[in-house]
């Protein structure tokens, strides 16, 4: 045993004996990388995992808008579009992950990211009244829609999987349309 | 009786040691000498006398390493009082080495190896000795190399290891064929040289001609000796200036430009959503040393909602966080590795390892922002996880391929490969600002995080880990002690 430990020590000094245990593939190239994800590239997965909480946060904002009486009709119409359309999108987004054998990561839940209308922001919004509420909610939707559009376009230019590209294309189209409804800030 | 065996074939040879030893003991010196008389080559030259010598340590000024090659058996090298220790002599050029004579002081090495090298970087183990009794020990070799190193792994006494003389014999320049070490890993020789008799010595041992495994390092640099005044802290460093800001994150949102909150990028000047190892290596850097092409980034720090002036950052690559034995085994950070430190999703100050304090004023450190008085700068500290799973350069959550060490300063079985610990220290030009006015693009101060996408060329990383971390020496920006 003693000679073996001597050999191990030598490996340390000379930094690189091939036979030392547990040294792993040091210096390995990018052959080892993120595990494959059922036909989805890391970009596809990142897009889906970001779009899900973005949609969920916008759904919560839509629910708050619909709950508040006195919201203006245009804002209510937008909230209704979001409420129905985003639920369908969420089913498709989750379906893509399931089909790829992935479970949904919660890495962005509660994450203060662009395009997310956070719980903190919603609580603050809920304090606003009348026209102030409408204006702040429109601004929150606008920020969300712009970021959602940006990310969908990034997926369309860099993504790979057909199912995810189709989602990206639909998201690009609907966000453009909803931004048009909101009008210029 | 000393045991000598080729290190790469230890198990197979164990059974043959007894046979070899029996021959030595049973055979008469006359017979052995007679065999050699017929073919005896001209006597070898003493090549080591006055050669450049380096050693792992010295006990004190009277016991300098060069005392072991000064030809004076009244002076000696003596090491510090701990294992392991080494001494190395430079023969000046490649030589055919036929014999090493070790004239031990009473405090000798019980277990040691001899290694040779042509470049001082790649070493071949040519002898492996157990249970030495010290005295004057002759090791017959058939090796080549310019450098000869004795690596002592076990002391015979509570003191260090000490040599009156360390003599290397052979023929300078008489090197035919490839120089040591060139044997492929796992190769072994079965041509153990016969034992010579050395009647005047207390111990006669035989080494084989088998080179050990090559060490596989592709670099050609010469390992710098450790200066006597070196600080014995395992560390090398990179200082990396601010480069740019972008709402990109090539780890969490690869190729999704604009998907992230605003990030402040340090070091590599090209980092964006599309960055990968190749693109980083081809780009410029704001780091000193310029070899470090790593992309480092944090959420952007805002005062009253506006990004502040460029911060400065220092990245310490440290051997600490694990015990010394593990430090000596720390491996180079692999090419392509991605690591995230801190917690972008922390919902309270308890949820992060980030520490905020002031550079230039004494305040109680906090996991959230602190108010620094005028003249002092807001400063963040954050240590990266340093235990790697040995397989994945990234993971789905970008965290689970890395782990922090566990008690008693070791890497857990799930993440067995120790890497240098990266400690980031970032100074923000924020002085005299109340903490309530400071936010991050990711939220409160406790959501601070630092991302790392390795851009060190493999050879530079390997050299620094070997010379600074494994040897436990503080190195400068150039990676030298």
DSSP, total strands of chain A: 0
Task: Identify the CATH architecture of chain A.
Answer: Up-down Bundle
Radius of gyration of chain B over all CA atoms, rounded: 28 Å
Helix content of chain B: 10-25%
Q: How large a portion of the residues of chain B is in β-strands, by DSSP E?
A: 25-35%
Unreliable spans of chain B are 1-39, 177-220
* Annotation field: number of helices of chain A: 6
Tell me the domain tally of chain A. 1
Order of helices and strands of chain A: HHHHHH
What is the straight-line distance between the termini of chain A?
A: 76 Å
- Round the Cα radius of gyration of chain A to an integer and report it: 24 Å
Structural class of chain A: mainly alpha
CATH class of chain A: Mainly Alpha
Summed over residues and divided by their number, the pLDDT of chain B gives a mean of 82
Characterization of the model:
The complex is a heterodimer of chains A (185) and B (481). Chain A has a single domain (42-103, 114-182), classed as Ferritin, core subunit, four-helix bundle (Ferritin). The model of chain A is unreliable at 1-35 (pLDDT under 50). Chain A has six helices and no strands. Chain A has 185 residues and is mainly alpha-helical. Chain B has 481 residues and is mainly β. In chain B, the strands form four sheets. In chain B, strands 1, 2, 3, 4, 5, 6, 7, 8, 9 and 10 form a ten-stranded mixed beta sheet that branches. In chain B, strands 11, 12, 13, 14, 17, 18, 19, 20, 24 and 26 form a ten-stranded antiparallel beta sheet that branches. The model of chain B is unreliable at 1-39 and 177-220 (pLDDT under 50). The interface between A and B is large, with 53 and 71 residues.
């Amino acid at each position: 045993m003693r000679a073996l430990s001597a050999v191990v020590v030598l490996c340390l000094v000379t930094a690189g004996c091939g036979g030392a245990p547990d040294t792993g593939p040091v210096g390995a190239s990018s052959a080892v990388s993120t595990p494959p994800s059922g036909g989805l590239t890391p970009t596809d997965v990142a897009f889906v995992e970001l779009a899900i909480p973005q949609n969920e946060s916008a759904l919560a904002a839509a629910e708050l808008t619909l709950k508040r009486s006195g919201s203006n009709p245009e804002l209510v119409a937008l909230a209704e579009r979001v409420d129905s359309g985003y639920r369908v999108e969420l089913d498709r987004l989750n379906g893509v992950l399931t089909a790829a054998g992935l479970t949904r990561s919660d890495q962005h839940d509660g994450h203060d990211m662009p395009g997310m209308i956070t719980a903190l922001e919603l609580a603050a919004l809920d304090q606003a009244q009348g026209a102030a509420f409408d204006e702040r909610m429109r601004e929150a939707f606008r920020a969300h829609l712009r970021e959602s559009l940006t990310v969908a376009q990034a997926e369309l230019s860099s993504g790979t999987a057909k199912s995810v590209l189709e989602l990206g294309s639909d998201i690009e189209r609907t966000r453009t349309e909803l931004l048009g409804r909101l009008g210029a800030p | 009786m000393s045991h000598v065996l080729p290190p790469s074939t230890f198990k197979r040879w164990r059974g043959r040691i007894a046979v070899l030893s029996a021959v030595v003991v049973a055979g008469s010196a006359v017979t052995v000498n007679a065999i050699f008389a017929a073919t005896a080559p001209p006597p070898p030259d003493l090549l080591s006398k006055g050669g450049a010598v380096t050693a792992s340590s010295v006990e004190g000024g009277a016991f300098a390493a060069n005392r072991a090659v000064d030809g004076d058996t009244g002076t000696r090298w003596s090491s510090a009082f701990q294992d392991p220790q080494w001494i190395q002599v430079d023969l000046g050029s490649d030589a055919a080495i036929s014999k090493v004579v070790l004239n031990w002081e009473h405090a000798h090495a019980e277990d040691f190896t001899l290694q040779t090298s042509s470049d001082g970087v790649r070493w071949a183990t040519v002898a492996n000795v157990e249970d030495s009794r010290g005295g004057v020990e002759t090791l017959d070799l058939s090796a080549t190399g310019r450098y000869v190193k004795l690596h002592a792994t076990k002391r015979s006494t509570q003191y260090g290891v000490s040599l009156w003389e360390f003599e290397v014999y052979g023929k300078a320049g008489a090197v035919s064929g490839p120089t040591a070490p060139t044997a492929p890993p796992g190769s072994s020789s079965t041509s153990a040289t016969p034992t010579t008799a050395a009647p005047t010595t207390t111990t006669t041992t035989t080494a084989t001609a088998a080179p050990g495994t090559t060490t596989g390092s592709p670099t050609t640099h010469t390992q710098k000796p450790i200066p006597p005044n070196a600080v014995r802290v395992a560390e090398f460093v990179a200082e990396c200036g601010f480069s740019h800001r972008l709402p990109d994150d090539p780890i969490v949102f690869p190729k999704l430009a604009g998907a992230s909150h605003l990030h402040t990028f340090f070091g590599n000047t090209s980092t964006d959503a599309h960055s990968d190892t190749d693109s980083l290596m081809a780009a410029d850097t704001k780091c000193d040393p310029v070899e470090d092409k790593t992309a480092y980034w944090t959420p952007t720090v805002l005062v009253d909602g506006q990004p502040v002036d460029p911060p400065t950052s220092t990245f310490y690559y440290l051997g600490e966080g694990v015990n010394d034995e593990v430090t000596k085994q720390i491996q180079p950070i692999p090419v392509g590795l991605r690591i995230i430190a801190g917690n972008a999703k922390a919902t309270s100050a308890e949820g992060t390892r980030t520490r905020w304090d002031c550079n230039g004023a004494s305040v109680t450190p906090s996991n959230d922002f602190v108010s620094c008085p005028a003249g002092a700068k807001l400063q963040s500290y954050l240590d990266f996880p340093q235990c790697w799973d040995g397989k994945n350069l990234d993971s789905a959550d970008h965290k689970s391929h890395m782990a922090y060490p566990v008690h008693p300063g070791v890497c857990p079985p799930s993440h067995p490969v120790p890497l240098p610990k990266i400690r980031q220290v970032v100074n923000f030009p924020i002085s005299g600002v109340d903490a309530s006015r400071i936010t991050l693009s990711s939220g409160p101060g406790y959501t601070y995080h630092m991302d790392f996408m390795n851009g060190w060329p493999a050879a530079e990383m390997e050299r620094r880990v070997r010379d600074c971390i494994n040897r436990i020496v503080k190195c400068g920006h150039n990676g030298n002690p």
